[in-house]
Each structure stands twice: as structure tokens, then as C-alpha cells.
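Subject: design request, 164 residues
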């Protein structure tokens, strides 16, 4: 398995779309259309040009995981698009944890970033458990200090300090 920063490639993008559609719609039944997520088709512009990044995990050239870091201010970034196929969750792969660690390692080089925020659908209990295990705390929307677009499906908002 390999985790690397995203680069423009039609097959990589197609694999990413397959992964996202599987996780959001076949598995979680959220009904989120790709037209609601134009960032997936503009990763270099949307994530990478402003100091964030986006990583894909591949196994034998198949996209099996992803995670994005969207910088939305001098001190804040948003964790986006953390997806893995079910067979890569938990032991022996722990791909979600490896992807998150890749993002954290990158933020260490971004000395001005002080916190991460994320949104996740209310019904995604497995995701809530994962984020809480990684040090994220549930906050109210009123406490969210940055504005960014996300396809809202009764989403919960989480925040994590990067300077602990």
C-alpha cells in the first residue's frame, strides 16, 4: 500500500470518485451527488494551491483511501474526504489512522496551523468514534469560527487542537 499526495491523473480521479461514491452512498446511504463536491475535480486548485494538501492511498494501483487538508485561515484547516474501503479499516491495515497521521505530519510543517475542524453526518457513528479517538471534540455549529462549504446531512462539527 502507498500513500502519496494527489496529482492530476484521470485514472486516479476516477478511482477517487468510485471510493467516495461507495462510502457516501452505497455504504452510508447519504445520497450525496458528485455535483455537490466540485472540489474532487479541482484538488490541486482547491486544496494544494493554498497550503493544504490531499493524499490518496493505493493498493496495486487501486485507490483505496483518501484524506484532504483544506486550509481556511492562517490558523485553521478542515479535514476533508477521509474515506477508506471497509477491508482497509482496522487491523491489519488501519488505513484511516495512517492517512490521518500523514495529514498530521504535514501540519507539523505548517507551523501557523493551530486547529483542525471537520464535519461528519450525524448517523456516521463509526466516524464519530474514530475522530474522538484521534483527539477531536464535538462542538456546536455556533462555536465554528471558520466558514466552508460541505454537503450538510445533519452534520456534526468536530474540532482538534494541533498545538497540544
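Subject: RE: design request

Done. Sequence follows.
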Amino acid at each position: 500500500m502507498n500513500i502519496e499526495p494527489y496529482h492530476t491523473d484521470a485514472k486516479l480521479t476516477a478511482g477517487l470518485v468510485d471510493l467516495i461514491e461507495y462510502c457516501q452512498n452505497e455504504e452510508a446511504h447519504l445520497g450525496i451527488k458528485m455535483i455537490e463536491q466540485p472540489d474532487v475535480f479541482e484538488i490541486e486548485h482547491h486544496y494544494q494551491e493554498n497550503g493544504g494538501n490531499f493524499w490518496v492511498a493505493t493498493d496495486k494501483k487501486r485507490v483505496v483511501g483518501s484524506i484532504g487538508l483544506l486550509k481556511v485561515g492562517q490558523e485553521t484547516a478542515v479535514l476533508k474526504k477521509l474515506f477508506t474501503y471497509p477491508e482497509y479499516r482496522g487491523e491489519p491495515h488501519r488505513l484511516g489512522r495512517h492517512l490521518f497521521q500523514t495529514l498530521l505530519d504535514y501540519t507539523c510543517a505548517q507551523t501557523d496551523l493551530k486547529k483542525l475542524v471537520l464535519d461528519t453526518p450525524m448517523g456516521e457513528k463509526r466516524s464519530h468514534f474514530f475522530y474522538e479517538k484521534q483527539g477531536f471534540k464535538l462542538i456546536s455549529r455556533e462555536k465554528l469560527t471558520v466558514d466552508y462549504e460541505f454537503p450538510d446531512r445533519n452534520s456534526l462539527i468536530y474540532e482538534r487542537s494541533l498545538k497540544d
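DSSP finds four helices and seven strands in the chain.
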